[in-house]
Design goal:
The protein is mainly α and 548 residues long. Helix content is 63%, strand content 6%. It has 20 helices and eight strands. Strands 1-5 form a two-stranded antiparallel ribbon. A two-stranded antiparallel sheet has the order 2-3. A two-stranded antiparallel ribbon has the order 4-6. Strand 2 and strand 3 form a beta hairpin. The radius of gyration is 24 Å and the shape is globular. The two termini are 36 Å apart.
């Protein structure tokens, strides 16, 4: 017998969130994933879910957000919390690199960033199962945030042993724990996205995407850039202290403990003080959803089976192979060459204004009937920037001096990042514009979410593969010990035992960078035009029969 309060409802839409990746896992929210103005918010009423809004029949809500400022601030805070574990996860690869872990270990840890690309797989369940008295969204948001807080408290007590064990950092355990943090943050995102659309009135629901963009960006900044700066002894001694010390102002353990407590306390306050449906007393509700959980999965399968969609998804899954070495490995190589990880993280700060302006500027060129033309034209420039990154890594050791790196070096790195962002956003905005153009309006939310998910996944798997292949493509020789080699960690250990030193004769990063550019150019020549031709398909070719 079912519990009377366990209500199985029909599924709503799920919105994908991702992050722009500056080279070296320095990820800035709002890029090749989440746009600053989410088109799915506007598609919601016509999408898989018909969200209910409350319409007060007794009084008129004042225009603007003044009457709902509390709800807007709550949403903003919830999205900030969501960005914290993502920012921390993004900082770990840089910390691991400073501890000289292998690139295969980095590849393994990169699976931490996959849940936001795959959350469409379990999002229908999040929308379907809940306790009605507690609230549809709070039924998932409160438990996931409690678990996030508990995981952070657990990590605060164990992360030092995981990072500083005798055999090196325990990457498998770190990956498992941070994968759970990312999974829980993705689940919380589904719940908060849904609550955002019903917490605010119809007139102010557009602020939901603003809260998402600003909140996640702020949270990611706190968990990544600010943490790396405060954790660095060099940064704190140079800018924040009068007397130098061997450690930063905070440690990873202390940072995790602080935010674990914040998660637990704030979640308790929200659970007790915020009633999910309090704004709907005495107000009319529109009908809710039109699709059930199984119907949602069937609908997704029906969309994927369409020839045009299947072709487009195949192209999206392979388009970013050519950029994978530049996007995933470059920053780690810069850290390996001696560039302080906190300085790389701080370079993400001046990128924020550029990321705000670029979509506005580029959208003027993608608003027409052929947005993928911009994607096609930007593609080779982004490949060339990848070669420029390889040149930057090669040049870096020769610039380093006893006091670090000169100012002009960081200016060149910043310029390289800016050019990368221009090419990246040109392709991203063009893709999002095409998604909006072809999505079936009868199921717009589901259609858009599917295409966005595939786009995001198309960036994750090549990055993981690129990290994995760096070590196998690297050639080393043992100098100072006759008859020894450095083809494996065991052989490198024997080389060192015999008094030799393993010296890199060919860095796999450069091999990989060249291969990626060749593969990318081949894709551009053979498949790029095929992607452009998809714009010539009639609207009927993109219509799903299941929606008719």
């Amino acid at each position: 017998m079912e519990h009377p309060e366990l209500t199985t409802h029909k599924n709503g839409r799920q919105r994908k969130v991702a992050r722009t990746t500056l080279p070296g896992n320095i990820r800035v929210m709002d890029g090749e994933g989440t746009s600053s103005s989410d088109p799915e918010v506007e598609e919601e009423a016509e999408g898989l879910v018909k969200v209910f809004y409350c319409e007060d029949t007794t009084h008129t809500v004042p225009p603007g957000i003044r009457g709902e400022l509390g709800n807007v601030l709550l949403l903003l805070f919830l999205y900030v919390l969501q960005g914290i574990p993502l920012g921390l996860a993004g900082s770990i690869p840089l910390i691991l690199q400073s501890k000289s872990v292998s690139y295969k270990d980095q590849a393994f840890f990169s699976f931490v960033f996959w849940p936001f690309s795959l959350k469409l797989l379990w999002a229908p369940l999040v929308d379907a199962l809940y306790y009605s008295r507690f609230g549809r969204r709070k039924s998932w948001m409160v438990p996931t945030q409690y678990l996030l807080g508990l995981f952070m408290l657990y990590l605060s007590g164990t992360v030092n042993s995981l990072m500083q064990s005798e055999g090196g950092p325990k990457v498998v355990t770190l990956t498992a724990v941070f994968f759970m943090l990312s999974f829980l943050a993705a689940t919380q995102d589904i719940a908060v996205d849904g609550w955002a659309l019903t917490m605010l009135s119809r007139a102010n629901v557009g602020y939901a995407s603003t809260c998402n963009s600003v909140g996640q960006t702020a949270g990611y900044f706190l968990g990544n850039v600010l943490f790396l700066a405060l954790e660095s002894a060099d940064f704190c001694n140079k800018y924040l202290r009068a007397e130098p010390k061997d450690t930063g102002l905070v440690t990873l353990s202390e940072f995790l403990f602080f935010w674990g407590i914040v998660f637990l306390v704030s979640t308790t306050l929200v659970a007790i003080m915020k009633r999910e449906n309090e704004q709907c007393r005495g107000k009319q509700r529109a009908p809710e959803e039109t699709q059930g959980v199984m119907e949602t999965y069937k609908l997704l399968f029906s969309i994927i089976k369409m020839p045009t969609v299947f072709t487009f998804c195949s192209l999206l899954l392979t388009a970013k192979i050519g950029f994978s070495a530049a996007d995933a490995v470059t920053g780690l190589k810069l850290v390996e060459a001696g560039v302080p990880k906190e300085q790389l993280a701080l370079l993400a700060v001046p990128m924020v204004p550029l990321q705000i302006l670029l979509p506005v500027i580029i959208s003027k060129y993608t608003a027409g009937p052929r947005p993928l033309d911009v994607f096609y034209k930007a593609f080779p420039f982004r490949l060339l920037i990848g070669l420029g990154y390889a040149l930057l890594v090669w040049w870096t050791p020769s610039v380093k001096h006893e006091g670090g790196f000169p100012l002009y070096y960081y200016a060149i790195v910043l310029l390289s990042y800016a050019l990368h962002q221009v090419a990246l956003y040109s392709m991203y905005v063009a893709c999002m514009a095409f998604h909006a153009k072809v999505s079936d309006p009868l199921i717009g939310g589901t259609y858009m979410t599917l295409l966005n998910t595939v786009t995001n996944l198309g960036g994750n798997w090549p990055s993981t593969l690129a990290l994995w292949m760096v070590d196998p493509l690297t050639w080393k020789e043992c100098q100072g010990a006759a008859g020894q080699s450095c083809g494996s960690p065991e052989e490198a250990g024997l080389c060192a035992k015999e008094g030799g030193v393993c010296v890199t004769t060919l860095d796999g990063y450069y091999v990989e960078s060249a291969l990626c550019v060749v593969i990318g150019l081949a894709w551009w020549v053979w498949f790029g035009k095929k992607m452009r031709r998809l714009q010539d398909q009639t609207p009927a070719a993109w219509r799903c029969r299941a929606s008719r």
